[in-house]
């Protein structure tokens, strides 16, 4: 993709976001700036909170509407969606629900965030093998993963988009190969949902955070459960929200889980975060995932071209089909560069042998100009 000198404008004006009037925000792979509408949504929650039982009813209505939005973004149904405290909680609950035995194995790869790694390392204590697929030049292929799988492989864990390199993984092809086996797929879409299309029907579990590309904030994790192969899977934890009837006549002797994704929910969620996500997911749906993707890929391509011309070592694939919003640059000075830019009110992520600039729907060519004008020579 060649963008030349084309000026790319934001899909939403910067004035709609809190804080963008005095900084250049290329930090969405870590978190996004708050939209004014999210502040308004939280204030609505607080007003409803003061209405007693009426407020509770409105909370339930907003929660269902928010789940409906997330289901639309994931090509699923509201009943497939559970809200957790964060995505790490969701992944850990899945790790326990699978009831893995000694000799079973789980496949991960070296492009994964710790949340997708640590729960499986913990299971090594009970004899579960963790197989680690090495990346090649910042990417992992379906064949790399399938080469590690056998009849004792219970789960493959992979991100749709790598937080390290920004590379996009072909999870649909992987799932097509796994469907005829007993191996399940856990897909982490934290670095993709809200910026590129995602389809939960090509995974058994899909997890996501709410404070990055979805434009909401902390306090909410998303778990989407595809019932096609795991309808009978039961959690190893339980709370009053997990059960079909918490006031059943025999509630002191037994209980029955909900039959849908709600069985993974324990207690009340963060309603302030739900109100915010309801607003931001409405915004994303109105714009359209495909339109946001086109904007981000075009702007990201412009950034890659300019970084390459300046002599930087780009880790992210140039091919638009193989990336999303994260653009990573290999350098041992990543953390230092990020701190230098921060002093100039330019936000990027730096460390672990790289710095990362992330472009979203509120970014434009002017942001790229600012970044390139302040970066040292590559």
TrEMBL record:
<dbReference type="InterPro" id="IPR000192">
    <property type="entry name" value="Aminotrans_V_dom"/>
</dbReference>
<dbReference type="InterPro" id="IPR015422">
    <property type="entry name" value="PyrdxlP-dep_Trfase_small"/>
</dbReference>
<dbReference type="InterPro" id="IPR015421">
    <property type="entry name" value="PyrdxlP-dep_Trfase_major"/>
</dbReference>
<dbReference type="Pfam" id="PF00266">
    <property type="entry name" value="Aminotran_5"/>
</dbReference>
<protein>
    <recommendedName>
        <fullName>Aminotransferase class V domain-containing protein</fullName>
    </recommendedName>
</protein>
<dbReference type="InterPro" id="IPR015424">
    <property type="entry name" value="PyrdxlP-dep_Trfase"/>
</dbReference>
<feature type="domain" description="Aminotransferase class V">
    <location>
        <begin position="25"/>
        <end position="352"/>
    </location>
</feature>
<dbReference type="GO" id="GO:0003824">
    <property type="term" value="F:catalytic activity"/>
</dbReference>
